[in-house]
Write a structure and sequence with these properties.
The protein has 7 helices and 2 strands, in the order αααββαααα. The chain is mainly alpha-helical. It has one domain. The longest helix is centred in the last third of the chain and has 15 residues. It is flat, with a radius of gyration of 22 Å. The chain starts with 30 loop residues before the first helix and ends in a 6-residue tail after the last helix.
Length: 170
């Protein structure tokens, strides 16, 4: 009897795997994060963190899967042969970035400079976002990190700070 003549295998019941994790509110389920947030003066940010935790542990995690399955594409020329050097991203990437910016993952602390614990809340937002998608965490973190350098040059800061701390993704 050849292999092709054999009856196909039937699958077995898989019972040694954990259940699906998501959707999960990444903030509400993280008691250690909540405890340290309170200890560092950021417990006033629990409401926006809980909202973003639900988003990150649900829709954004799904968008991350889509974005990572559809890598950015470099288009060096248009259909007429003109050089364009354009990188095109899947819409899921843009959804990840727009959600992060709407929730100020990149700018929460800078938009609340006088509020104690604001950097702690921003770090917690970044932590939640990174669990949903690490790839978009890089530009968000670099944007947050650029603010102090810009503040050292008031003339440049006047132009750029409102742009990079905006909640609008362009």
């Amino acid at each position: 009897m050849t292999i092709s003549e054999q009856a196909p295998f039937t699958t077995h019941t898989v019972d040694n795997q954990p259940p699906e994790l998501l959707p999960l509110n990444l903030f509400d389920s993280d008691l250690v994060l909540q405890r340290h947030l309170a200890a560092q003066g950021g417990d006033w940010g629990a409401e926006p963190l809980a909202h973003y935790g639900a988003l990150a542990g649900g829709e954004l995690a799904e968008q991350s899967t889509r974005a990572n399955r559809n890598k950015p594409e470099l288009h060096t020329h248009d259909r007429f042969g003109h050089r364009i050097d354009e990188v095109r991203f899947h819409p899921a990437y843009h959804r990840l970035m727009s959600a992060a910016m709407e929730h100020e993952v990149h700018a929460f602390a800078w938009n609340r400079r006088d509020r104690e614990g604001a950097q702690v809340v921003r770090a917690a937002l970044a932590f939640l976002h990174n669990q949903a998608d690490a790839g978009t965490s890089c530009p968000l973190t670099m944007t947050a990190a650029a603010v102090p350098a810009l503040m050292a040059e008031p003339r440049i800061a006047e132009t750029w700070l409102p742009r990079i701390t905006s909640r609008h993704y362009d």
